Amino acid sequence: MTGAMTGAMSPADFFGGLYISFWIPTAVLTAALVIKLPSIVKLWRDPLLRAVGGLLLLACSVFLFAVPSVIAWTNRVVGVPNIAAPWVYSLITAYCAACLLLIVAWRNGPADRSPTTRRAMRWVVSVYAAVIVGLWVLFALADVPRERLRDLDTYYATTPFMREEILLYLAAHTAACLITWHLIRSWVRTQGLDLWLRGGLKALGIGYALNLVYDASKLTALVARWTGHDLDWLSTHVAPPVVAVAAIFIAVGFILPHGGQYLHERWRVRVSHWRLRPLYLLTRTVSGSGVPFALRATAELRLTRRETFIRDALLQLARHVDDDLHRRAYAGALALGHGPCRARALAAAVTIQDAIAARKASPAAGPPAVSLTSRTSGPGPGPGPLIVPGLTAGPGHAGGPGFTVPSDLTGLLQDIDAVSRALRSPAEIEEVRTLAAGPSGSAGPNGSPGPRASAGPRASADPAAPAAESSVSARE
Hints:
mainly alpha; Rhopdopsin 7-helix transmembrane proteins; 2 domains; two-stranded antiparallel ribbon; elongated; membrane; transmembrane helix; DUF6545
């Protein structure tokens, strides 16, 4: 029993054998690549997206092939000790080139094809391609027979040619990260950046700053070896987790602008749909039915259908809208201390409630309802878009041969979101209705005599006038 316990693997050894510091950033970077992949494939000609895709792919490859178990597998398959070293160094160098190409494309814009931009890109490709060739030449000249999976940098720090190879890849990595960090740091201070883009740039800046910490740890350990000291722990125990955290920040930096904007738009659509619920429930009483439920409908489609349903219902109420009540309600809301926007919304809520009550009092009066989305009568092969020649909606403007959109109804159709939010404050609506009723005693749908109790311009008008204001004339 004692021997079994002595030989048991400790939690540190167990998790160390899983190489979590390598697999976690690999998973995060892969997720970022998967998120970006549809845009990269769709807009393949965009150099900016190609640079992002190449950078993320190379970053995933670096962490994948830098895992000690994968290093051992690479050496075994190729049959050359430590052959994985120049391969991983080459991936790191290519990743550095992708960073610089991304910054050049990002700063100058994807449409920039100026000689300066093309020259900068050619310079980056040429220099880093030469570095990769130099890495393989130096490895071929070096004598590194003993396989090292974790501490190759410090173990061969004094070996001819291998020493120069290690310095070459660290110099290329440091230069690329330093230039990228400096450009991102100056860019993030630019005015007018989108919130999500600014957050992504800050995450990228942190990621590249941590890459510089990785380079400093490696170089410090190498210099210590050259001077006869032992700081190998900086290279084997500090540098790997630092660069793993850096990779996570870099992945977040690429995910945040795209993913953040997407989630923000989804949230905005759903909030807008929820805000319209009070007005939607109120206008359902006009037709007695609501929007049919569609299981596969997107959030945008549900919002559009709810907005269209509300506007269709308001058009059906056109002949019952009391312009005088709307003006008095607006004045009453202002008198209560509400701002103009809030006052318009409260006045519209009072007017809509009054119109619905008036319609219920005379449901059979007036011509067929008008819909923005469908046509149920008239010439044609069946339901379809409502087409009214010469129809114009505007303040006090009559459109078409028999249809007029009242000026107050035009405002109701445009401000449905504000009206719906006002309906969540029934106490304020009642205060406005009370002031709008005035000494005439018209208290609205919940008051004593009911709608149209007070004589107004619309009440004394010709009974045929509402029909001319709410429907399309039969003479098309």
